[in-house]
Design a protein that fits this description.
Shape: globular
Number of strands: 3
Structural class: alpha/beta
Strand order of the largest sheet: 1-2-3
Distance between the termini: 32 Å
Low-confidence stretches: none
Largest sheet: 3 strands, parallel
Order of helices and strands: HEHEHE
Number of helices: 3
């Protein structure tokens, strides 16, 4: 992931906030957008994610997660070609 981070940092500089910690980018985030199928994103700690995020919203462009699982953890979940399920919050 270090190489990808360096490439994106080179493109966007200080116009974006970067994190080199797995859950660091979620701290205070209003949403998460998944656009990769990398293995490390397949089995996250949903409870930790929910606690870190300001708004529990996930946009999943790769359909990595099950809608009912995210809804059960309190997330509003948007996925390509799937039903949107609101979280319980």
């Amino acid at each position: 992931m270090t190489r990808a981070l360096a490439n994106v940092r080179g493109l966007y500089g200080d116009r974006m906030v970067f994190s080199d910690r797995p859950y660091g980018a979620l701290e205070g985030a209003d949403g998460l957008v998944i656009v990769t199928e990398w293995q490390e994103f397949r089995r996250p700690d949903f409870e930790l994610m929910r606690r870190l995020m300001a708004q529990p919203v996930v946009f999943d462009g790769r359909n990595l997660y099950e809608p009912k699982t995210l809804a059960a953890h309190g997330f509003t979940y948007y996925a390509i070609g799937r039903e949107t399920l609101p979280g319980d919050s």
